Amino acid sequence: MRAVITAVVLATVAGCAAPGVAPAPPPMSSARPPGAAPPAAIGAVDWPTYHHDNARTGVADQLAPLGTLRTAWQTKLDGAVYGQPLVIGDRVIAATEHNTVYALAAADGHVLWSASLGQPVPGSDLPCGNIDPLGITGTPAYDQASGLVFAVAETQGGRHTLAGVDLASGAVMLRRALPPPKGDEIAHQQRSALTVLDGWVYVAYGGLFGDCGNYIGSVVAAPTTGTGPLRSYAVPTTREAGIWAPGGAAVGNGRLYYAVGNGESTQDYDHSDSVLALTPQLTLADSFSPAQWMADNAADLDLGSASPALVGDRVLTVGKRGVGYLLDAGQLGGIGGQLTRTPICQAFGGPSTAGSTVYVPCADSTRAVDVDSVGGLRVRWTASVPADGSPVVGGGAVWVTDTDHGILYALDPATGTPRQQIDVGDLPHFASPTLAGAHAYLGTNTGVTAINVR
């Protein structure tokens, strides 16, 4: 009897992992060691999350004025950097598809520390997809309260693990299994940027390229302390409806706004092909879907390909159909309840917002879209070069990549014509530069490239 009880207890502790698959890691505390230096505060020139802030404005007010672009340094890492690099003080943080988080010296790019979060998933082990191997894809986020950089690693067996890495030392202070609440875990990809908000880390899930397997778009939130109950929300659909746009949540008005992809249903409304407003507790507060959501679902023409943009009390969302919808942030409008709509472009990636202008990442080239005070939309310009990456703004320029040809452009914000350009290397999809001090930093398929902007 004693032997049987012992075996049951050990099996319970180990979990129900498949043969050859390591069990999910137990939660770890993020408590800082005695005598450790206080966490680094976020400074005026820092870039602690995707597109600079939780509203995803993508604006660097402190960037040096544009001069002549030149390469400052290039650092080769152990894999592709799909997420946007972060900058905290004198450190550039980058995470790779080999599940390694690096801190690089901002001045010259040398490695200060690296932290491995486990073996990535070989492409041959995935039901579909276009990233091989698959490790850390979503942009990490820095929490100045704990001093931790949070990232989600996908490891062998298709497991997803939230990790908190100490900015100062590179020590992994927190590690916790963070599976999506519904569907098959291995069919989910974590591509959207993480969000740190009021002591919680918010993580969104979508599917793999090819839309295979049983995945359901969802958001999971974990306390930054590493322990305690999780919060979660799953789109009420039978399958798909992924939340995969690189920018993740745009936070404003006490809500997290997510763009959601096409769902399986073309008859019963399932909150797919939508913008969802979630409370910090991850309850659904509001939603918008185009009137033709059924046709969008059937033709894979959903809103989920680009993150929403916040413009004051308005939300601009643009997806694969190429139509821009302007919404009231306080009352999104349900099905077909937009304030106005206008053709803009097929959008993919993360937009940026400067004042009342939204710079939209389009499949052919960036658009500048003006939102007027009475709720109108106007495309002011289309960039004259094939700049299809996710744009950011600073130093008197709009910064955007041509991902096919590995070029970084500094565009005139008034006209969209290039003021400067420079080769930056082989780029992943949706590459977006980080702007800090006198540099632009880019994740590439081989590491990180830093560009002097003056």
Topology of helices and strands:
Elements: H1 2-14, E1 59-60, E2 70-76, E3 86-88, E4 91-95, E5 100-105, E6 111-116, E7 141-143, E8 148-155, E9 159-166, E10 172-177, E11 188-189, E12 195-197, E13 200-207, E14 218-223, E15 231-234, E16 250-252, E17 255-260, E18 274-278, E19 284-289, H2 293-299, E20 309-311, E21 314-318, E22 323-328, E23 334-335, E24 340-343, E25 352-354, E26 357-360, E27 367-371, E28 377-382, E29 392-394, E30 397-402, E31 407-411, E32 418-423, E33 434-436, E34 439-443, E35 447-452
Parallel strand pairs: 1-29, 19-23
Antiparallel strand pairs: 2-35, 3-4, 4-5, 5-6, 7-8, 8-9, 9-10, 11-13, 12-13, 13-14, 14-15, 16-17, 17-18, 18-19, 20-21, 21-22, 22-24, 25-26, 26-27, 27-28, 29-30, 30-31, 31-32, 33-34, 34-35
Task: Characterize the structure shown.
The protein has 454 residues and is mainly β. It has a single domain (42-452), classed as 7 Propeller (Methylamine Dehydrogenase, Chain H). The chain has helices at residues 2-14, 293-299, and strands at 59-60, 70-76, 86-88, 91-95, 100-105, 111-116, 141-143, 148-155, 159-166, 172-177, 188-189, 195-197, 200-207, 218-223, 231-234, 250-252, 255-260, 274-278, 284-289, 309-311, 314-318, 323-328, 334-335, 340-343, 352-354, 357-360, 367-371, 377-382, 392-394, 397-402, 407-411, 418-423, 434-436, 439-443, 447-452. The strands form 8 sheets. A 5-stranded mixed β-sheet has the order 1-29-30-31-32, with no helix packed on it. Strands 11, 12, 13, 14 and 15 form a 5-stranded antiparallel β-sheet that branches. A 5-stranded mixed β-sheet has the order 16-17-18-19-23, with no helix packed on it. Strand 14 (218-223) and strand 15 form a beta hairpin. The longest helix has 13 residues, at 2-14. It is globular. The N and C termini lie far apart (75 Å).
